[in-house]
Amino acid sequence: MKLAHMGVGLAMMGLAALTAGKAKAEDQELKIGVVAAESGSFVSAGNTIAAAAKLAAAKINDDGGIKVGDKTYKIKLYIRDNRTDVNVTIAAAQELVNDIGVSAIWGTETHDFSIAMAKITGPAKVLQFSGNSSLGSALNTTSVAPDGWLHYAFQTEPQEWQRSGSTARGVLALLTPLMKTKPVHSVVLVGNDATGQYLSSHYVKALEGDGQQVDLVKYPPDTTDFLPILTRIKGMHPDIVHFWYNGDSTLTAFPQAEQIHVAPAYFLFGVDPGIYEQRHLTASVPVTMSCVPECWGGPKRPDVDQYFAKYFGSGASKGPQSSVSLLYYDYFFMYAKALAEAGKVDDPDAVVNNLLKMSYQGVVSPVPLTFNSNHQVTFATEVCVVKPNTSDDFTCTTEQPPAAPPAGDPGG
Amino acid sequence: MEIFLQQLINSLSVASVTILIGMGITLIFGLAGIVNFAQGEFLMVGGMITWALVMAGVNFFVAMVVAMLAVGLLGLTAERTLFRFTLTRPMNGFIMSIGLSVILQNVVIRTLNEVQKSITPPVTAVWTVGGVDIIAMRAIVVAITAVVVAVTYFGISRSRYGVALRASVADQDTAALMGIPVKRYVTGVFVYGSVLAGLGGALMIALFPITPFTGSVIIIRGFAVSLIGGLGNVGGAVVGGLILGLVDALAAQYGFPQWTDAYSLIVMIVILILRPQGLLGGTMGPRAT
C-alpha cells in the first residue's frame, strides 16, 4: 500500500515537473531595459519613463504576453537609475546590452545622454526608444540607414521645431483674445544648460516667426530664488513671460513672478494642468500650459483619464510633467506588435522595418502613431489656458505642428 | 532707481536663508571642528518635515518649531553616533558627511518621493512702498534671521558658554584641564547648528518649493558664506551672506543673470586669496590632533 502511494506520489511529482517545464518553455522571457533618472535633477521626467514602462509591461503580461511565432513572451523589465549622470547612463546601457542582453531600451529622457547611449545600443542591434527631442538633430537619412549608427534608435517625442511651432502658435492664439492689447513682446526665461539652450533656440525662432519681439533671459539651472531675475524681466515690460523647459524650475519661479506681477500673461512649459490644479496655483492674469501629446488634467477625455487613473493608481508620483509618461507607454504596445509581426525576437532589422511601416492607434493621440523615414514621430501639442484666479478652469486647444521650420531654424 | 532699490530689498531675502545655513556651518566647522557636508540635507529634512506637518493641517509656525527640534535631534544622533568618532580625523568626518548627505537624500525620496514639495505661503501679503514690492513672507524671514543672528552672536561672544567654547577652540587640552567639558560643548554646537538648518529649511519652504536635492545645491553657498566671513565668526557669516545676496541681485540686474552663481564664487575666491582668514577673521577650522 505504502509502495503504491509512493508510486502515485512520484508519478504526480514527475507530472508536475513536466508541466512546469512545459509552462516554462512556453512562457519565454523578453528582456527590456529602462534607463531613466530616478534621482538627480531630471527625476521628475525620469520617473515617468519607469512608471509608464512598469504599467505597460504589466498590462501586456496580464493580457497573456506577446505571441511571437509559436512562442509567448512575458516582458521582464530591467530598470536602471542613471542619476542624471551621463557616466552612469553609459555604464547602465553597457550592463543592459552586454551583460543582461536586453532586446530594447526605453530612455533616456535626458537629451545628450541618449546620444551617448545610442553608441552602445546601435552596434549591438538593440532598439532604443528615446523621448528627447534633441535626438532629432542626429537622426537623418545617413544615420538611420541599415548601416548607420542610429538605425535602431527611435525618437518618440516630436522634433523640437515642430513642438515649438505648435506650442508658440497655441499660446498666442489662446492669450491674444484675453489680453487688453495684442501681445508683441515676449521674454523667454530658460535654464542655462545644454537642453535649455537647444530647446529655447527653436522656441525663440517659433515666437519670432509668429511676430513676437523676443528677449531670452537665462538663469543658472539650480536657481531657487528667482526674484532678482524676475525683477529685471519686469523692467523689460514684457507682454508674455514664457517659463521654458524645466517643470520644477517653472513651478519655483512662477509663483514668485505672480507675487510682483511681472507680466500680464504667462506660459508655463513643462507643467501639466493637473499639477497646477493640485498645487492650487492661481494668477490674476491668464496662464497657459502645454503638453505633448495630451495633458494630465484639463478637460475630461475618457481614454486619457482612464490611462492617468491607472498610471497614478500604480503608484506613480504626480509630477509636473506626468503627461510625458504617455510618450513611452504606447510605444511598448507598438514594439510588441512589431515583434509579433516579425515572427521572431532575434531579428531587430525586421522589427525596425515593421515599426517604420506601422500605423499604431494608442492612447496618445486621435491620430495614429507613425514614424517617418528618419525614425521620428510626429503629433500635435495640446495647449491650455487657465482662467484668472482659478486653479481648475481650463480651456484647451490642439495645435498641429507646422509644415516646415520657421525662418532661421535649421530644423532638428 | 526703483529697480535698484527693489534689488537691494531682494538681496536681503536672498541672503537670509544663506546666512542661516552659513551660520550653522561656520559654528560646526569653525568651532566644533567638524566639516559637515550633510548640513544642506539637514536643511532639506527641516523643509520636508515642515511640509508634511503643514499638509497635515498644522500651523506653519508650529511646524517650524517642530522641524527645528526634529533636525536638532537628527544632529544629536549624527554627532553621537558618527562624527564623535572622527574628531581627531576631520577628513574622515568630511567623507562620512558626504555619505550621510546621499543617504538622507535617498531616505527622503523613498519615504516621500522625489517630487518637489511646496506649501501655500503662510503670509501672502505684498506691500508696495514707493514702487518697491515688499513680500511680507520674505520680510518675516529677514526678521527671524536677524533675531537668530543677534541671539547667536551674543551667545557666542558674551555668555559663559560662548567664552568656554572659544577657549576650547583655542586650546582643547588646556580647556579640558580647566574643567571645560569639551566634547559636550562640541555636541552642543553641532546640535545648535542643526537646529539652525531646520529653521532654514522651514523658512525656505515658506518661500520656494524644495526637493530632496535642495540641500546639495545650497551647501556650496553655505560654505562660501562661512569662508568669506571667517570660520566660526557669526558676524562673518552675516557679512558673507549679505555680500552673496547683493552680488546675486546686482548680477541678475546688471550682468549676465545666468552667471550669478559664478559671480558669487569668484567673489569668494578673490576674498580667500586676499584674506585667507576671511573678512572678519576666524578660527583655522578643523585640525587633526
How many domains make up the coordinates of chain A?
2
**How much β-strand is present in the residues of chain A?**
15-25%
- How would a crystallographer describe the biggest sheet of chain B? 2 strands, antiparallel
How many β-strands of chain A, per DSSP?
13
Low-confidence stretches of chain A: 18-23
N→C terminal distance of chain A:
80 Å
User: Biggest interface between protein chains, with counts per chain?
Assistant: A-B, 35 and 42 residues
Distance between the termini of chain B: 54 Å
Please state the CA-atom Rg of chain B, rounded to the nearest Å.
19 Å
Instruction: Tally the helices of chain A.
Output: 12
CATH class of the largest domain in chain A: Alpha Beta
The proportion of residues forming helix of chain A, as a percent range, comes to: 40-55%
What is the CATH architecture annotation of the largest domain in chain A?
Answer: 3-Layer(aba) Sandwich
Q: Globular, elongated, flat, extended or rod-shaped: what is the shape of chain A? A: globular
GO molecular function, one term (chain B): transmembrane transporter activity
Transmembrane segments (chain B): 12-37, 49-78, 90-109, 135-156, 185-207, 262-280
Organism (chain B): Acidisoma silvae
GO biological process, one term (chain B): amino acid transport
Structure description:
- The complex is a heterodimer of chains A (412) and B (289).
- With 412 residues, chain A is an alpha/beta fold.
- Chain A has 2 domains: 21-159 and 302-357, Response regulator (Rossmann fold); 161-300 and 380-399, Response regulator (Rossmann fold), CATH 3.40.50.
- Helices cover 41% and strands 18% of the residues of chain A.
- Chain A has a 7-stranded mixed β-sheet, sandwiched between helices. A 6-stranded mixed β-sheet of chain A has the order 2-3-1-4-5-6, with helices on both faces.
- Chain A starts with a helix and ends in a 13-residue tail after the last strand.
- Chain B has 289 residues and is mainly alpha-helical.
- Chain B has a domain at 15-211.
- Helices cover 72% and strands 3% of the residues of chain B.
- Chain B has 11 helices and 2 strands, in the order ααααββααααααα.
- Chain B has helices at 2-30, 39-55, 60-81, 90-111, 136-157, 160-170, 172-177, 182-207, 214-229, 234-254, 260-274, and strands at residues 126-129, 132-135.
- In chain B, strands 1-2 form a two-stranded antiparallel sheet.
- The model of chain B has no long low-confidence stretch (mean pLDDT 89).
